[in-house]
Specification:
Helices cover 73% and strands 0% of the residues. Helix 4 packs antiparallel against helix 19, helix 5 packs antiparallel against helix 8 and helix 6 packs across helix 19. The termini are close together. It is found in: Cell inner membrane. It is a multi-pass membrane protein.
Length: 573
């Protein structure tokens, strides 16, 4: 067990970074129309704008196992800094975008950087706190992540009231830089449990392993220079400042090549691409000692499987369809990639998900996490839908009704972490999820006028509190039973299972709900507008019922997380 001179300050900084990434998931809710206009899309092209949202989710989920594994091989501080750097670059690219591919690419980078912060931070908790004492810090991480989800739309609205949508992402970039500097300062003295792994992460030629370089320090300096040149050139290409583009001499590198309109298909864009290739070639021997210890083939297969799964369901309109436009093509690809990974997992000497990681309480933790994701997304998506069907047609007001639920989740996460100091994770998570399940059973009976009642606020708050109570116990049990040198990948699997539960669960519950919706409408000879709305309420009630079942099953699975508090002397690490 290694420590930092200021573990609470380091965890606080990492947690704020997690909250920033969580906020970015929802920050586009109110800014989407302006973002579409900024890249030349009209409001009638909403389907083409779907990748703006799904791209972030794709980046967030698809590479989580890879980053989780990486955080087990090198210092978690380095992983946090790397993820923040990717997040900052993605935020800047998004802010500069004037075309859809660049905007989507920036959002994907934001998702990769933001998603990677979560398993690295959870693994950092396992590194800095012994088993039996992780409840409160895990509760803090879960709480700030949920607080970020609540604040995202509010912060977006505040920025839009003063500036345009681009300032949202410039502020993200600035915040990422500040947080990176704080992690760099506060992380001094924090080691890594796997000293041998960390030794291999040193520059080849200095550590004596990997490819020997003639002058390692000079090589590193050249790599840094090439990286800075890449950022400057590509940044200038995307920015295209008018003072330069209008200049007779200096403007020539910004003129698009014949047949193209993109700012990247210019001389300066080409120079930036060349600098990027040079950076990659120079960096390859520096990072190879770590990369060779990662199952890159397995990581690629997992990324493809998760990516196809996300795009299949995330690109669908939950009110109208279950599977996105390319779903029937992507799902078979996901199945093949998953099958090939299982074969790879058995054959590889060091698979991406190390053998022995998914053991004991890690298994019920993954099941419970996935089912929590199903319940969570059902409330987040369908409460606003019910509000628009029965209370108000204004989307903003409908979203504000959801705040009653969202505010209670971080409170529950903090309470769940605090309770772990006294009882076992099973006795915290199971009652919480049972409370959430019962609350959603009540919600499955809601109809016109229900959301306007005072008791509806109590039910939504109870459901949020119950779900929040389960967050820290699930993470705690998984980290306790995972090997000490695999906390990163274990944390990543818990996060992935929850996100996959959200994506797939929403699709499946929507499918069942839509089936009841169409059956109700078809039973009517000449349905009126109100009757169609009533059928929509039936669909929402069906989704809530399915979510309630998921929460109750998760409560049963959580009983396997253990009833006894883990004592300090039994810590696995």
């Amino acid at each position: 067990m290694t420590s930092s001179p200021r573990p609470k300050a380091l965890l606080g900084t990492a947690s704020v970074a997690v909250a920033l990434a969580a906020a970015d998931t929802y920050v586009v809710v109110l800014a989407l129309e302006q973002m579409m206009s900024g890249v030349g899309l009209g409001i009638d092209a909403l389907q083409r704008a779907t990748p703006i949202i799904s791209g972030f989710l794709l980046g967030y989920i698809a590479v989580l196992p890879l980053i989780g594994r990486l955080s087990d091989l090198v210092s978690r501080q380095r992983v946090l800094l790397g993820c923040l750097a990717i997040f900052v670059i993605g935020s800047a690219a998004t802010a500069l975008a004037v075309e859809l591919p660049v905007l989507v690419g920036g959002r994907v980078l934001q998702g990769i950087g933001g998603g990677g912060l979560v398993p690295a931070t959870l693994a950092l908790v396992a590194q800095l706190w012994p088993a039996g004492e992780r409840g409160t810090p895990l509760g803090v991480v879960g709480a700030v992540q949920e607080i970020g989800s609540v604040l995202g739309p509010l912060l977006g609205a505040a920025v839009l009231a003063v500036w345009d949508w681009r300032m949202i992402f410039w502020l993200n970039a600035i915040a990422g830089i500040v947080l990176g500097a704080m992690v760099l300062v506060l992380g001094r003295g924090a080691g890594h449990p796997g000293s041998a792994a960390d030794a291999e992460s040193r520059v080849p030629g200095e550590s004596g392993e990997g490819v020997r370089l003639p002058r390692p320090r000079l090589w590193k300096a050249a790599t840094a220079v090439a990286g800075v040149a890449t950022l400057l050139l590509l940044g200038l290409a995307l920015w295209a400042p008018e003072r330069l583009t209008q200049d007779i001499t200096l403007g020539e590198p910004f003129v698009p090549y014949a047949g193209h309109t993109s700012r990247l298909f210019t001389q300066i864009g080409l120079w930036g691409a060349i600098a990027l290739v040079v950076t990659v070639l120079l960096a390859a021997p520096l990072v190879w000692p770590v990369l060779r210890r990662i199952d890159l083939v397995g990581a690629l297969l997992v990324t493809v499987a998760l990516g196809c799964l996300v795009l299949t369901f995330a690109s669908a309109d939950p009110e109208k369809q279950v599977i996105g436009p390319l779903g029937w093509t992507l799902l078979p690809v996901a199945a093949v990639a998953a099958g090939l990974y299982l074969v790879r997992h058995r054959a590889a000497a060091q698979p991406l998900i190390a053998r022995g990681v998914v053991r004991r309480r890690v298994r019920p933790a993954l099941v419970a996490s996935a089912l929590v994701g199903v319940a969570l997304v059902a409330v987040v998506v369908d409460v606003p839908i019910l509000a628009r069907l029965t209370v108000t047609e204004d989307q903003t007001q409908a979203a504000l009704i959801l705040v009653r639920f969202l505010v209670a989740v971080p409170i529950g996460a903090l309470a769940g972490g605090w309770l772990l100091r006294r009882v076992g994770p099973g006795l915290v998570a199971a009652p919480g999820l049972a409370l959430a399940g019962v609350g959603m059973l009540v919600m499955s009976t809601w109809g016109p006028g229900s959301l306007a009642q005072v008791w509806a606020t109590v039910v939504l708050a109870a459901v949020g509190l119950g779900i929040g109570l389960s967050i820290a116990p699930i993470n705690d049990a998984a980290l306790d039973d995972a090997p000490a040198d695999a906390h990163g990948i274990a944390a990543a699997l818990v996060v992935v299972s929850r996100m996959v539960g959200m994506v797939v669960g929403l699709g499946l519950l929507t499918a069942i709900g839509l089936n009841r919706f169409y059956a109700t409408v078809q039973a009517l000879e000449n349905p009126t507008v109100q009757q169609v709305k009533d059928a929509g309420v039936v669909q929402v009630q069906t989704v809530f019922l399915g979510a309630a079942i998921a929460a109750l099953v998760a409560a049963a699975a959580s009983l396997l997380l253990g009833r006894q508090r883990v004592a300090h002397h039994t810590a696995l690490d």
